[in-house]
UniProtKB/TrEMBL annotation:
Protein name: protein-glutamate methylesterase
EC number, UniProt record: 3.1.1.61
Classification via CDD domains: CheB
UniProt GO cellular component terms: cytoplasm
Taxonomic lineage from the root: Bacteria, Pseudomonadati, Pseudomonadota, Betaproteobacteria, Burkholderiales
Recorded catalytic activity of this chain's protein: [protein]-L-glutamate 5-O-methyl ester + H2O = L-glutamyl-[protein] + methanol + H(+)
GO biological process, one term: chemotaxis
GO molecular function: phosphorelay response regulator activity; protein-glutamate methylesterase activity
Cross-referenced SUPFAM superfamilies: Methylesterase CheB, C-terminal domain (SSF52738)
Superkingdom, natural source: Bacteria
Length: 201
């Protein structure tokens, strides 16, 4: 496990174009701790993928819209991935980011028993944004997101994992750390602080 590193040291001189966050079991509570810290004029798009029960519509966009100053919406196929908004993956669709900075939704088979899958969003975003991407993986009960976060790291992006000792369900953070050491392992309060410190290109 990598040691916790000073946020200032890691962010010094770095600029970013997008953030992708993945979470599963316990994720809504974790997101309620970190996302309300976003400013109204959040300078990058923040894309959030949360595992959900199949067959039910997602109400995450509505839940967080009532609690955030920044605009919140559900990602739609072909929508522009624009700075200044928080986007949630819709229920029962894989969410990918395309080279023209638009969203793509698909009904491809379940990935690690889930759709939407965190790996799809993170791996596609790594292809689009490279070293200008921040990937954050939170609490969860399986290894979805580990490969996606590793892809972000391989592309030069900044990788962040919730401290497994704090996570409601530590399997997902531990699997990510095991696959590729992240740049930062942080408690939620410091992830919230990180999101307010990002500078843009």
């Amino acid at each position: 496990m990598s040691v916790l590193t000073s946020l200032g040291d890691v962010l010094d001189g770095r600029t970013f174009e997008a953030v992708v966050i993945g979470a599963s079991a316990g994720g809504v509570s974790a997101l309620l701790e970190i996302l309300p810290g976003l400013p109204r004029d959040v300078p990058v798009p923040v894309v959030v993928v949360v595992h959900m029960l199949r067959g039910r519509p997602s109400q995450l966009a509505e839940l967080f819209a009532a609690r955030l100053d920044a605009p919140v919406r559900e990602a739609m196929d072909k929508d522009e991935v624009a700075p200044g908004s928080v986007y949630f993956a819709p229920a029962d669709y894989h969410l990918s980011l395309e080279a023209d900075a638009t969203f793509s939704l698909s009904c491809e088979p379940l990935h690690i028993f889930t759709r939407p899958a965190i790996d799809y969003a993170m791996q596609s975003a790594a292809d689009v944004y490279g070293d200008a991407l921040v990937g954050i993986l939170l609490t969860g009960a399986n290894h979805d997101g580990a490969a996606g976060l590793a892809a972000i790291g391989a592309a030069g992006g900044l990788t962040v994992v919730q401290d497994p000792h704090e996570a409601q369900v530590p399997v997902m953070p531990r699997e990510a750390i095991k696959l590729r050491a992240p740049d930062l392992i942080l408690p939620l309060r410091e992830i919230r602080g990180l999101l307010t410190m990002l500078e843009t290109r």
